[in-house]
Amino acid sequence: MEEPVKIGHDKFYIGEGETARRELRVIKVSDEVIQVQEEVHGIIALVGASSSVNIKKEELKNLIKVAKEQFGWTDICE
Q: What is the pTM of this model?
């Protein structure tokens, strides 16, 4: 499997003087599948049955660019 490509990152205040760090990455799983990974550090995680990724408009643009240029998905639009 290829190395993940970072498409976004930021820091945010979560209270009591603590700041969390977030990174958003994408990796090609197969010719038809990509995986978006969100890593957050600095927050105590709760276990749940569902998972979601928060993506900003600029990160989505970066995701489309990576999918086209690095993964060869030339048939998707912006």
A: 0.66
| Short-list 54, 11, 15, CA closest to 36 | 54
Of 43, 42, 66, 71, the closest CA to residue 55 belongs to 66
pLDDT tens for 1-46 read 678 899 989 888 877 777 888 888 888 888 888 888 888 877 655 5
Alpha-carbon separation of residue 34 from 6, 42, 48, 67 (angstroms)? 13, 26, 23, 8
Residues 6+ apart with CB under 8 A from 21: 9, 10, 11, 40, 41, 42
Spatial contact of 23 and 39, defined as CB atoms under 8 Å apart: yes
Cα 53 from chain centre: 7
**Site of tokens 């912006």:** 78
Distance CA(27)–CA(36), nearest Å, equals: 7
